[in-house]
Amino acid sequence: MNFEYRRDRFESFNQYANPLLNLGVTASLPEFRPFCKANGLPPFHFLLYCLCMSVAEVENFNYRLLDGEVVKIDWFYGGYTVINGDNNLNYARFDISADRNAFIASSVQAGAEAKASRVLINTGRDLDPAHRKHNLYTTCMPWLDLRAIEHPIYDYRDADIPLIAWGRFSELGGDRMSVPFCIQAHHGFVDGYHVHLLLAKLAERIAAEIAQ
Predict the structure, then answer these.
(1) For residue 87, what is the DSSP state?
(2) Residue 95 · residue 79 · CB < 8 Å
(3) β-strand partners of 160
(4) H or E segment at 39?
């Protein structure tokens, strides 16, 4: 792993009371909704698939802190927030797959289970400390033209898992669409450049998928 080239940056930012980087950006992406409609794919789950595959390709988003040491994870759970029947937040979690159809099927099923549950599930408290690090937190607020978000943080110094939120898609029209993203990560691991790299890989992944 390339972390040794970054260790001095990590050690510097890790001394901060709040070492988190938060960026709100509007991504220009290939328009994928007609492709999803033609292929019977839910647009949210298609975007989540492309996003997770892109995160896996950017090493800096896969660094974590475990027992005071920096480690690099090589897999993570898929997860996102849902609104249940009581209009309360709940969490979906599932094992991701590089196969698009398998990923989407698991994602849809996990979302249905979370929506059906009145109690809060998939909080991570059922996982041991090492497995809790194998997470990527995502949330979508399709009602909002998202500009910024502040997530609840139990301990800023331990907040090493990236959180990626996005809002309402732009209106249909043309071959491009815009999606507002808010991306949070430990600045010891991630700079603005890596956010740019992630969104560039996301656009490339979408383009490759819809070209098939």
Answers:
(1) S
(2) no
(3) none
(4) helix 33-39
Q: What is the distance between the alpha carbons of residues 149 and 49, in angstroms, rounded to a whole number?
A: 22
Distance CA 204, CA 121 (A): 34
pLDDT in tens, 34-44: 999 999 999 99
Residue 101's domain spans which residues? 3-211
- Among left, alpha and beta (phi > 0; psi -120 to 50; other), residue 124 is left
- Nearest-angstrom CA–CA distance, 93 and 96: 9
User: d(Cα 111, Cα 133) in Å, to the nearest integer?
Assistant: 21
| CATH code at position 153 | 3.30.559.10
pLDDT digits (tens, 9 = 90+) for 90-107: 999 999 999 999 999 999
- Is the sign of the CA dihedral 194, 147, 135, 21 positive or negative? positive
Q: Are 19 and 156 in contact (CB under 8 A)?
A: yes
CA dihedral over 83, 33, 110, 77, signed as positive or negative: negative
Torsion angle defined by CA atoms of residues 177, 178, 179 and 183, in that order, rounded to the nearest 10 degrees:
130
**Overall number of domains in the chain:** 1
pLDDT < 70 positions in the chain: 1
| DSSP per position, 172-203 | S-SSEEEEEEEEEEETTT--HHHHHHHHHHHH
